[in-house]
Amino acid sequence: MIYIQLFFSFIQVGLFSIGGGYAAIPLIQSQVVDTHNWLTMKEFTDLITIAEMTPGPIAVNSATFVGIRIAGLSGAVIATLGCIFPSCIIVSLLAYVYYKYKSGSALQNILSCLRPAVVALIAAAGLSILNLVLFQGEKTALNNIDWIGGGIFLTAFILLRKWKWNPILTMSLCGVTGLILRLLLSAAAI
Amino acid sequence: MKNKVQTKQKSKKLVKLFLSNLYISSFTFGGGFVIVTFMKHKYVDELKWLDDQEMLDLTALAQSSPGAIAVNAAILVGWRVCGFAGMLTAIIATILPPMVILSVISLFYEAFASNTYVALVLNGMQAGVAAVILDVVCSLGSNVVKEKSYVNIFVMLLAFLFTFFFKVNVIYIILAAAVIGICKEVVRRRKEMKS
Question: Which residues of chain A lie closer than 8 angstroms to B63, CB-CB?
Fold first, then answer.
């Protein structure tokens, strides 16, 4: 019974969250906290923090976390399956249509306008993260700049752009460098 | 004989797909656009299974369908590379790392969420993520500019303005771009009819 509930709750999360992670958060909250009382609001906030700190989509992370707390490992699997089920059907249909008509000039023309828009969307996502890195959530002003974050960003950007470093390696090194620099800085402050 | 070779090649490709997606998924902190940039590095630049344009098309599809962008993108890439089997392989590889990590963390989540060292590492990684995304944007953006289509450059600037400054929902941006695309197609057909 609880498995069916988990499955259908997360199907709704998967089906109605269009546009990625942040769109899913209110839906997850309404299912998990308001409708079923599986988590308290405090636990839910912790879950979102953890979901943002760990790799993977927020919806999949939440499904695993809620599933495991409610019904153990099998609960986690069932909730996750529910959450990706709508995608599997809708996206594979779209993939079929896309590859069938891709070479047609009509679809090509429409897609040629979509591509630059997608580049812009990726740019906006990147700049929002950069904004967070530079100002750490404070107001966007010159005297609020976080120089460690900015320095790491600039170094990483040059390494990637000029020397084509591996992105995952670069990102991991950024994490370690950030930890070391900030620990050194706080040690120097004492 | 030929069939055997083909099956062998296919299973090799599936293994490669599985491992690549597993690796990418284990390291994609942040939203769906991060995984898309990593996929571009892996599948376009390294393995050459897709080209730039296809990757952008798949991103638009993944973004405008319901569900997590990472899962949607995995379905599309998997389908493209190896059909139905590829799709299943890519999905499993994408959801396995977050599932394992979250299962482990759910055992001691309070200690994890309040750990300062973890927070500091993640803070540094965020700077790296921004660099990875903007690096890909520079490559893709310069391709758009090089095509010298004024409509496309205009669409790119306008889309950026509306998402970044006016925080318009991504879905509307994609729909608007599709409408502009349809108008372009209609204009082209009219011209063809006249000539």
Answer: 19-20, 118, 121
Q: Work out how many domains chain A is built from and give that number.
A: 2
Residue numbers in A near B121 (CB within 8 A): 175-176, 178-179
How many whole angstroms separate alpha carbon B167 and alpha carbon B64? 16
Residue A18, helix vs strand vs coil: strand
Q: Give the angle subtended at the CA of A73 by the CAs of A72 and A76, to the nearest 5°.
A: 95
Per-residue pLDDT of chain B (195 residues; tens, 9 = 90+): 567 778 888 899 999 999 999 999 998 876 677 888 899 999 999 999 999 889 999 998 888 788 888 999 999 999 999 999 999 999 999 999 999 998 898 888 778 878 889 888 888 888 988 898 899 899 889 988 998 888 899 999 999 999 889 988 777 888 899 899 899 889 888 888 887
**Inter-chain touch A168–B38, beta carbons under 8 Å:** yes
Cα separation, A40 vs A33, in Å, equals 6
Please tell me whether residues A15 and A87 are part of one structural domain: yes
Domain range for residue A90? 2-101
Q: Are residues A74 and A132 in the same domain?
A: no
Domain identity same for A92 and A23: yes
Q: What is the amino acid identity at position A13?
A: V
CA distance B111 to chain A (A): 11
Residues A112, A180 within the same domain: yes
Using CB atoms, which residue from A84, A96, A106 is nearest to B95?
Answer: A84
Please tell me whether residues A78 and A121 are part of one structural domain: no
**So what's the ipTM on this one?**
0.81
B164 in contact with chain A, both atoms CB, cutoff 8 A: yes
Q: Are residues A69 and A12 in the same domain?
A: yes
Q: Please indicate, yes or no, whether residues A17 and A94 belong to a single structural domain of this protein.
A: yes
- Whether residue B33 contacts residue A121, with contact meaning beta carbons closer than 8 Å, is answered with yes
Amino acid B31: pLDDT: 66
Computed over every residue of chain A, the mean pLDDT equals 87
Distance CA(A164)–CA(B158), nearest Å, equals 30
